[in-house]
Each structure stands twice: as structure tokens, then as C-alpha cells.
Write a structure and sequence with these properties.
The protein is an alpha+beta fold. It folds into 2 domains: 103 residues, Orthogonal Bundle (Peroxidase, domain 1); 76 residues, no CATH class. 64% of the residues lie in helices and 15% in strands. It is built from 8 helices and 4 strands, in the order ααααααβαβββα. A 4-stranded mixed sheet has the order 2-1-3-4. β3 and β4 form a beta hairpin. α2 crosses α3, α2 packs antiparallel against α6 and α4 runs antiparallel to α5. The longest helix is centred in the N-terminal third of the chain and has 20 residues.
């Protein structure tokens, strides 16, 4: 899709314009905050896509949002450019691609861990240590809880999933029993 190509180019351009690692992290946080603002208020998307609203008003609102969110200048410039070029609605994709570019540049990987019960700091640190060794990258863990899993954990790295939950084990057992009954 052309939207993805355009979004990727903006994300890569933003990344290449930032040398400082700290600024890279802050810029990513700024883009995520801006994206969350758009997600929280659907009216913003309608405002920026409406052909009857002048570019001047759209730029003014973008600047106001940047001020409220205390956005870094490099991100502020990107948002001004996106508003001017009528690409501000690609912001979600740009933020996603930028996160991937930042992760690649910093040799890190995001792992989403879902567990039936809350993980302790010790559990998280143990997971990080093991995954750092296996993946050879700095691991950033995002943990969530899902009581329907009964027990165990599920790890998601990109599009790969390692499922060691009791719910999954029961489903596998059920399929095995059903196959034996058919045979």
C-alpha cells in the first residue's frame, strides 16, 4: 500500500536526522503521544482530513498540540511538514515504522509477554536475561495480564509467538484426543 511506503520514508528520514540516542527515544515518545492523542479524539482525524478547513487552521492546531505535548523540535518540524503535505493522517503508521527503525538502530527488540498472573520484577528480569542471550539484542518487555490463560505465559516477538499457557496446552491435548478418536 502506498500509505506504508510513504510512512516508512518519513520514519526513516526522521531517524536519519537524529544522531543523539536520547533525542531518538524522546522523539519516539513524542510520536507515540501524538498518535495516542489522535486515537483518543476521533474528531482530530476528521478535522485534518476535511477539505473545507484551511491549511492555516490545521497548522495552528498541530502547533498547539505540539505545545501541549512538549514535542521536540525535530518532531515538531515533521508534524508541520505532514500537516502541510496533507499526510498527518499517516501518523500512526509513521510512528509504528519509526519505532521499528529505532529498535533496529539501537539493536533492541520488543517482546510482549502475556501471563495469567502479574509478573514480578524478578520474573521480568529473568526473562530479559534469557531472551537477551537467545536473541542477541537488548530486550524491552511489555507485560500484560490475561486471566483466561489459566496459567503460564505467552511471548510475542514481532509476528512470532511462543505459547506456554495452560489454555494452549489444553487445546493441543483436545486436538490430539480428537485425532485419536477419528483414527
Amino acid at each position: 500500500m502506498i500509505e506504508n511506503v510513504i510512512s516508512k520514508r518519513y520514519a526513516e528520514a526522521l531517524s536519519s536526522s537524529i544522531d543523539d540516542e536520547g533525542l531518538l527515544h524522546r522523539a519516539l515518545g513524542n510520536l507515540k503521544a501524538f498518535r495516542e492523542t489522535f486515537d483518543a479524539d476521533r474528531q482530530l482525524g476528521r478535522f485534518f482530513s476535511h477539505p473545507g478547513i484551511s491549511g492555516k487552521k490545521k497548522n495552528a492546531l498541530a502547533r498547539e498540540l505540539c505545545d501541549r505535548l512538549q514535542v521536540e523540535n525535530v518532531v515538531r518540524n515533521l508534524l508541520a511538514m505532514l500537516t502541510q503535505r496533507q499526510k498527518i493522517l499517516f501518523l500512526k503508521n509513521i510512528a509504528d515504522y519509526f519505532e521499528a527503525v529505532v529498535d533496529e538502530r539501537l539493536n533492541q527488540v520488543r517482546v510482549h509477554v502475556t501471563s495469567a498472573h502479574p509478573l514480578t520484577e524478578a520474573n521480568i528480569n529473568q526473562l530479559k536475561t534469557g531472551l537477551n542471550r537467545i536473541l542477541g539484542k537488548t530486550v524491552l518487555i511489555e507485560a500484560s495480564e490475561d486471566t483466561s490463560l489459566i496459567g503460564g505465559i505467552q511471548l510475542r516477538v514481532g509476528d512470532q509467538v511462543a505459547d506456554a499457557t495452560i489454555t494452549n496446552r489444553l487445546a493441543v491435548l483436545k486436538r490430539m484426543i480428537e485425532k485419536e478418536e477419528v483414527a
